[in-house]
Design a protein that fits this description.
The chain is mostly helical. The longest helix is centred in the C-terminal third of the chain and has 42 residues. It is globular and about 85 Å long. The two termini are 23 Å apart.
Amino acid sequence: MTATDKIYNPYAVAMVVSLAAFMEVLDTTITNVSLSHIAGTLGASQDESTWVLTSYLVANGIVLPLSGWLSGVMGRKRFFMVCIGAFTAASFLCGIASSLPMLIVFRLVQGLAGGGLQPTQQAIILDAFPPEKRGAAFGITGVTMIVAPILGPTLGGVITDNFSWRWIFFMNIPVGIMALLLVGRMVIDPPHAKAKGLISIDYIGLSLVALGLGVLQIMLDKGQQDDWFSSNYILTCGIISGICLIGAVIWLLRQEDPIIDLRLLAKPSFSLSCMMIFFMGFCLYASSAMLPLLLQSEFGYNATLAGLVLSPGGFAVIFLMPVAGRLVGKIQSRYLISTGMFLLTIGMWYTMHITPQTNYNHFVMMRILQVIGLPFLFIPISTLAFMDIPKEKSSKASAIYALARNMGGAIGIAVVTSFVARHEQVHQVYLSEKLNQGNSIFQHLVARYSSVFFSHGQNMVNATHSAMGRIYQDLLSQSSIMAYHDSFMIMSALTGILAVTALFMPRNNPRKKAAAAEAAH
């Protein structure tokens, strides 16, 4: 910092760096509802088009844990600006891609550039605010990390249905340019965040981490599609990822200055917070992925309407973020985390009560109840996580923390998707056993549907066949809804256990910090 550097309001700095991170997090979910349109335009199959999402997530997951090391090599501000510039340029290239291979390559570049934005944003905010005001700071960060994935499918559906999928990427360009200019003007690196240069490269650690996380992300994304470990491809991915990640842990713990500082996990406040943010990501991303899928597959909603079910929940989170930020300065974080998990438990439990008659308003209420606990999770978890982290370790700690959240989301989507698919088959078998002539309800349905088809001009034989077909369709739909019911029941039980576990997390004393700050003034 020089004498000519102007010190900007930390809230303004937080808003500026969050603008870039919001853009990046949004891109993790905004393409989900557009894959069929992308496949149709570029002449690809639906399965091939999923690599548009997978390539981004793989590249993103590789860079996330390395961002702290890269910040040290390049200087935090310079690294952040390089990430913004490269992400913006890659977004333009994605928008003009004329073939699927081109789009996948540009999405890889976009993911590599975007992987450094989330943890670097958090590290900048950590240094911009004193500890007693971090609750408010994490409220701004929380809007980025929680609202962006919620609004992604809605925005993606609206743009795709009314314009073109290419505008999903083009919209990043003005945002990226504005963020780049503002960051260059307003962000100042403290001494510990200045560039240290590339003294040496830990090729072994870098290779093990990159290969292990990259292959793990591919396995999670393609596992359900290939029937998990019954596929030699998925089995090979699992073995490679396991060997690389175990080897990476052993190697990194032996290095004096590792590219990922796993020793930070020895601090209970940090390691337990990483566990909690992992499961928060698990529930947030899994529910954000599964609810629109349920609405489109079983209730006939289009992409826009399915997205609109999620939007009110996003606005509820924005409204509650400042409330949670204020409470962090008055109440122990572990009590707020327990409250947030309890609210999440109620939301998941309420969502279990899905029936074929559930309407739009009920789905909106379900989604709001699912997410109102998130502000009381993200802000206190983040506050507790960095409570004992030295400033010079903030970048590397932020990288591990962001990785925990994102891996929670990736694993959550993979686990819940697989769980729903398997339980759908279980319920089909169970319900099929009820379709026999000795079941009075089955006989009544056949008679009722047959009379409807008969009244529309079919003879009785064809009307009976049509009735059986309709009953089978109802069975498939009911099986699917019951499988989603089971998945939300499991998440409700999981968050209930975590609500109790949170009470045993390390103590923090927000009132003591606030009093110390007042005495300093």
